[in-house]
Amino acid sequence: MQDQMKNPPQAQESVQENLNEILRVRRQKLQALKDEGKDPFALTHYERTHESEEIISHYDELEGQQVSIAGRMTSRRIMGKASFAHVLDRAGTIQIYVKRDDVGQEAYTAFKQLDIGDILGVKGTVFKTRTGEISLHVTEYVLLSKSLQPLPEKFHGLSDPDLRYRQRYVDMIVNPEVRKTFMARSQIIKIIRRILDERGFIEVETPVLHTLATGAAAKPFITHHNSLDIDMYLRIETELHLKRLIVGGLERVYEIGRIFRNEGMDIKHNPEFTTIELYQAYTNLEGMMEVAETVFIEAAKAVCGGTQITYQGTPVDLTGPWRRLPMIDAVKEYAGIDFTDILDDEGARAATKAAGLEVEADMTRGQCIYLCFDELVEEKLVQPTFITDYPVEVSPLAKRKVDDPAFTERFEFFITGREMGNAFSELNDPIDQKARFVEQAQKKMAGEGEAQIDDDFVNALEVGMPPTGGMGIGIDRMVMLLTDSYSIRDVILFPTMKLIKN
Fold first, then answer.
1. For the chain, which end, N or C, has fewer CB atoms within 10 Å of the first or last residue's CB respectively?
2. Helix orientation angle between 475-483 and 285-304, rounded to the nearest 10 degrees
3. Residues marked as binding?
4. What is the pLDDT of residues 373-408, one digit of tens each?
C-alpha cells in the first residue's frame, strides 16, 4: 500500500513512458551507427595497457605517459568544447577528459551522442586535474559496445533486493561493494586451496547425480535419466564418494562444489550452495580443528586485514586457538539444563519439555540433548567455538567415543551464532555403519520417507578404511562472515529466485 501511495498509477505510467522513450532513442542511435558503417558490436578485442586502479596507484610512474584502458562509461559532464566522464572497469573507476581540439570535431560530436552504460576503449595521457583527480587526457577512443538499457538512476541506484539478485549484472555495475564481495569470495577459495594443496591434499570431483539419496539428512531434488530410465538425485553431500577415495588409498582429498537440498530458503539457506569437504587418513578431530582454524585465520588476514573482524556490528575475534566445549557442557552453561544427572530417556524428555520445547514421545536422551542445544544454545555462540561430543543418534557417520559410546567423536564450529562447519573422526566400522543406516532407513519409513541404504559404501568400509578425519565447511557462510554480508543471497552470484510470470 505504501509503495502505491509513493508511486500512484499515473506516476508509474509516466515512468514507463519515459523508459520506453529512452529505449527507443538508444535503438535509433544504434541503427544510425550501423547505417554509417560503425557497428559498435563489430570489434572483437581491444588492447589495454592498464586498469584503473593500477594507473591511480602508480601515478608517479605513469604521469605524462600514454596508456589505454577499457570499460563502461558511468557518468559524463559535457562543457562545450570539452567533457569529463568516468570509466568503470573491474578494478574501479577513473576519470577521462575529452577535448574537441584533441580528438577532432567528428569524434567529439560522436562522444556527446554516447549514453551512460556504453563500453569504451580509451587511449590518453595520465595527468591530474586542478582538483587533484587522477585522469586520462584522451587522444582517441572507440565505442566497443552500445548499451541499449539505461542504468539505474545515479542517486537512487539499484536498492530493491529482489531486483538486485535477479539482475546481478546491473547490481555489480552500480554497487561497487558487490564486486568486491565476489572478488573476496574468489580470494577465500584460493586461500583454502593453497593451504590444503601445501599439506598434500589433492582436489577431486565426484558425481553430482546420485542413484541414492543417502548421506546427509536432507530432502533431495529428483530428476529422471531417460536413457537408463531411473530416477536420480542431485547430491545432498559429497561425503560418501570422498570416503571411498580414502579407502582407495588417496589418503588426503578434498572437493569444493555445489550441494543441492530441496528445503527452505532464508538468510542462511539457499537450495544450492557451496561446501568444501576434506578427508585425511590417519588423523582425527584435533587435526580437523587445526585445519578449520588455519583456513579461517588466513582468509581473514587476506580479506579483512587481520583476525579482529566485525560482523553486522558485532566484534568477532578469530585468533586461535578457539574454545572447545562438549555439547552437554554447552547446554548446561547456556540453557541451565544438566544432562549429566539425567541418564534415562524419560527424564531427558521431561527436562526438555520443562525448558519449553516440543518433545516427541519416542525421543531419546541424545536427541533431547541435541534439541536443547539446537534451540537454546546455538544462537548464543558468537565467538568461534568448537562444540564436541555429539549424541550418536544425530551422528550416523561419526565414530563413537571409546569411553562413552552414547556420544561420537564429532564437532561443529559456530561463529556469530551460526554453524560454519562439521567434522568427524569418521566411522570406519562397517558393521556399526550398516546398523546405523538401517536405523536411519526405518525412521524414514516411519515418517513416510524413502528408505535407502548405500550398500556399496558399506562394502567399501568392509574393504577397509583407515582411521580418518573429515570435515565440511560452508563456503557461503564463511564468505558472509568475512565480507560482513547479511544474507546468503549477497554472496551467491545468482541465488535461487521465485519465477516471475509475465
1. C
2. 40
3. 412, 419
4. 999 999 999 999 999 999 999 998 889 999 999 999
